[in-house]
Specification:
The protein is α+β, with helices and mostly antiparallel strands and 199 residues long. Helices cover 56% and strands 14% of the residues. A hairpin with a 5-residue loop joins strand 1 and strand 2.
Length: 199
């Protein structure tokens, strides 16, 4: 004998438990209390931060007033004159730095020419004739000072200079010779490739 059982009967269905109204009210109340507590904490923190910001603003305003008072106290005619003097010194320093830069550029431009001229003078040797000094400036002006025992050696020295590389293009226009003392044989001479004294 067979018997059919209908499993779709309400008796065999799994019943879903639903929260009761009381439970739902309790949950809603707990959530509401939590939200109120969070809101209260946020408002308290915000009020504390606003008080701190106001205190910092007052401190900042007070410090600015003190700075203004100090500036006014130190802004005397003496400090103004000192500030003007400092500004003038800074301008002088800038000007001198500019001149040093220009001088460095001139040294770089004329270094090879100067070294060639001095080498040519150093390699030139005539017995009885000695150099006391050589002056060369950035404009190519040369002055040679020396002593000789015989005045005839000076033209020979000039001829030798004209043959030296580095001085072959230099034309010495001024020649002056004078005896150091009447009772001494030394003759002092000056050779220049320009007119007038070296500046």
């Amino acid at each position: 004998m067979h018997q059919q059982i209908n499993l779709f009967q309400p008796v065999f269905r799994k019943q879903h438990k639903v929260f009761s109204a009381t439970t739902l009210v309790q949950i809603a109340a707990a959530v509401l209390v939590l939200l109120v507590a969070i809101l209260g904490h946020v408002r308290w923190s915000l009020a504390s931060m606003e008080q701190s910001a106001e205190a910092l603003q007052q401190q900042h305003h007070h410090i600015r007033q003190q700075i203004g008072a100090l500036e006014a106290a130190y802004q005397t005619p003496d400090t103004e004159a000192l500030d003007a003097e400092i500004a003038q010194l800074m301008a002088d320093i800038d000007q001198r730095n500019s001149l040093l830069i220009q001088f460095d550029q001139l040294v770089v431009q004329h270094h090879s020419a100067f070294s060639g001229q001095f080498r040519a003078l150093a390699e030139q040797h005539i017995p009885g004739l000695w150099l006391e000094g050589v002056t060369v400036n950035g404009e190519g002006q040369i002055e040679i000072r020396g002593i000789t025992l015989d005045a005839k050696l000076v033209p020979i020295y000039l001829q030798h200079l004209e043959k030296r590389q580095g001085l072959s293009e230099t034309s010495f226009e001024t020649v002056s010779m004078k005896r150091i003392a009447a009772d001494k044989p030394q003759i002092q001479f000056v050779l220049r490739n320009h007119k007038g004294e070296m500046s």
